[in-house]
Amino acid sequence: MTSTTSTPRCALRTEGLTKDFRGFRAVSSVDLEVAEGTVHALVGPNGAGKTTLFNLLTGFLRPSSGRIRVFGDDVTGMAPERITRHGVARSFQITSLFENLTPREHVEIALQGLTNQGLRFWRSEKLLGRRREEVDRLLAEVGLTELADRPTGLMAYGQKRALELALVLAVEPKLLLLDEPTAGMGIEDVDRTIELVRRIAAGRTVVFVDHNMHVVGQLADRVTVLQQGAVLAEGPYDEVRADARVITAYLGEAHSA
Ligand SMILES: Nc1ncnc2c1ncn2[C@@H]1O[C@H](COP(=O)(O)OP(=O)(O)OP(=O)(O)O)[C@@H](O)[C@H]1O
């Protein structure tokens, strides 16, 4: 058998991406390249522009200038639902679950929202069976099979965050954007989440923001460091964390804290 090496496709590319808020430049001419199938971390001191960049990538904000391409398609200026159709899904920092509903019900609602089957769906036993399998598969993927039928309000924080990942996976994303997947977690949940993200990253491309450098080191193939809206450094974790400019940026933050 002959093996061929081909350059991986670019899942995400930004060119000169810029966002101004009434004269304040929150994201400044960012060129980002994320190869398909990789895990890419966005880090930087508070206020560096990470959330604004996520909002631009997912259509929650319109760029002031620059372009965004997803798997080669130009999605600049598209609304969030249109960007979703290009295979992009996003998780949020804040949990937004219904305490009285079970994980199964959450996933069912997420899946139903994706189709226009409405009531017709309930009349078809075959579709219903297929839907049940899909719900079970998503809950198993995030390790919530055992808790599928208990009220979400009774679950631990880390389990709620895992359920949110299942809801993100329901849209069958090719590019996942995770906003601080380990925020507010204790060490055990952080380690479980690292494993979970690693699992769900298989066959997908993941871009995530996290302040926890242990998480970044464990998960990221490449890291982009932002400072004052601009890219300060980019590369593999070990290179980036040894970069004198990055150390200075973080020391500066520690000083002002
Ligand atoms: N809607 C807005 N209007 C004006 N300024 C904004 C707006 N949103 C963000 N900013 C400013 O843009 C800068 C970048 O903010 P952003 O939230 O993107 O940073 P961040 O890197 O995500 O920070 P953190 O790590 O604290 O979440 C900050 O100075 C912030 O005050």
Automatic annotation (TrEMBL):
Q: Which GO terms describe its molecular function?
A: ATP binding; ATP hydrolysis activity
Q: Which Pfam families does this UniProt record tie to the protein?
A: ABC_tran, BCA_ABC_TP_C
Q: Which residues form the ABC transporter domain?
A: 12-253
Keyword annotations from UniProtKB, A to Z: ATP-binding, Nucleotide-binding, Transport
Supply one GO CC term from the record. plasma membrane
Q: Show the PANTHER family listed in the entry.
A: ABC TRANSPORTER ATP-BINDING PROTEIN (PTHR45772:SF3), CONSERVED COMPONENT OF ABC TRANSPORTER FOR NATURAL AMINO ACIDS-RELATED (PTHR45772)
Q: What is this protein called?
A: ABC transporter ATP-binding protein
Organism of provenance: Nocardioides luteus
